[in-house]
Each structure stands twice: as structure tokens, then as C-alpha cells.
From TrEMBL:
UniProt key word Membrane: yes
Description of how the protein assembles with itself and partners: Homodimer and heterodimers.
InterPro entries reported in the protein's UniProt record: CASP/CASPL, CASP_dom, CASPL
Species name: Cephalotus follicularis (Albany pitcher plant)
Highest taxon of source: Eukaryota
Entry similarity comment: Belongs to the Casparian strip membrane proteins (CASP) family.
Gene Ontology CC annotations of this record: plasma membrane
Cellular compartments annotated: Cell membrane
Name assigned to this protein: CASP-like protein
Upper classification of the organism: Eukaryota, Viridiplantae, Streptophyta, Embryophyta, Tracheophyta
């Protein structure tokens, strides 16, 4: 039973690592240069602080996801993994939210603020951003699953045993 729980956790962590790494790579490599009305326009993730935050947050969570499986289950550090999972899950969702807001403005614009939609001019860039956002939300869902799995397997017996 313990091996099944550990295997489930490792598979989920590997999937989360893959999703966050994919989000990082896809967003970091997204760029497109076009000629709009005789003006060279370059779209890349570095022009938006929200996209930079997205790349940095996903890179941090990827590094965390790569290191956690190597922590021995008997270690005192392992006890903090639940809290760290929660922190990094919140980091993922906050970076996703910030990047999604900017992506929405890029796709739809905002007439009241005078912001024009740019996805018509740089569709490859917008497609990369969309792919990175999808990968990141998949990573978030997997980390939420890890949190629920941890609550069910580790914290639930403690709570039930402590109440009885």
C-alpha cells in the first residue's frame, strides 16, 4: 500500500514537472517579429512583466518539482513538502492569472483604455502564449491533485486518529 501511494505521488510529481517545464519553455521561446504599417513590431514574453513573472514562477516550480522526489520519506524536510506544495501551487495560479489577464488584453484589446488587440498581427506569438497557459493550468491541476492526495493519505489518518 505504501509503495502504491509513493508511486502515485511520483507519477503526479513527474507530470507536474513536465507541465511546468513545458510552460516555461514554450513561453520563454515565444516571439514573433512582424512589419505593421512599415514599422517593425516584435512580440516576445520579455515585454510584459506578467509574462516574465509567469516564466520565472514556472521555472521555480519546475526546479522544485525536480528536487522533491529525491527527498527521503523519512527526512524531517519531507514534513514540509505539503506546505511547500501549497506555496508553489499558489505561485502557479497567481502567475497564471497575471499572464492570462495580459493574454486576454492581447487577444481582445480594451477599447476604453485605447489598447488594441495584437493577436491578429502576431498569431504565432499568441498561439505560444496560449499553449504555455494551458500547460501551466495543467500543472496547477496536478499540484492541486497532489495536495488532495496528501491530505487524504497523510493528514486524514492523523485527523481521524486524533479525534478518536
Amino acid at each position: 500500500m505504501a509503495k502504491t501511494k509513493r508511486a502515485t505521488t511520483l507519477v503526479l510529481r513527474f507530470m507536474a514537472f513536465g507541465a511546468t517545464l513545458a510552460a516555461t519553455i514554450v513561453m520563454a521561446t515565444s516571439h514573433q517579429t512582424v512589419d505593421v504599417f512599415a514599422t517593425i513590431f516584435s512580440a516576445k514574453y520579455t515585454v510584459s512583466p506578467a509574462f516574465k513573472y509567469f516564466v520565472i514562477a514556472n521555472a521555480i516550480v519546475s526546479a522544485y518539482g525536480l528536487l522533491v522526489p529525491f527527498i527521503p520519506a523519512e527526512s524531517k524536510l519531507w514534513r514540509s513538502v505539503f506546505a511547500l506544495d501549497m506555496v508553489f501551487t499558489m505561485l502557479l495560479i497567481s502567475s497564471f492569472s497575471a499572464a492570462l489577464a495580459i493574454a486576454y488584453v492581447g487577444k481582445k484589446g480594451n477599447a476604453q483604455a485605447g489598447w488594441f488587440a495584437i493577436c491578429g498581427q502576431v498569431p504565432v506569438f499568441c498561439d505560444h502564449v496560449t499553449g504555455a497557459l494551458i500547460a501551466s493550468v495543467i500543472g496547477f491541476i496536478i499540484y492541486m491533485s497532489l495536495l488532495l492526495h496528501t491530505i487524504h493519505t497523510v493528514l486524514n489518518p492523523l485527523l481521524v486518529g486524533g479525534l478518536g
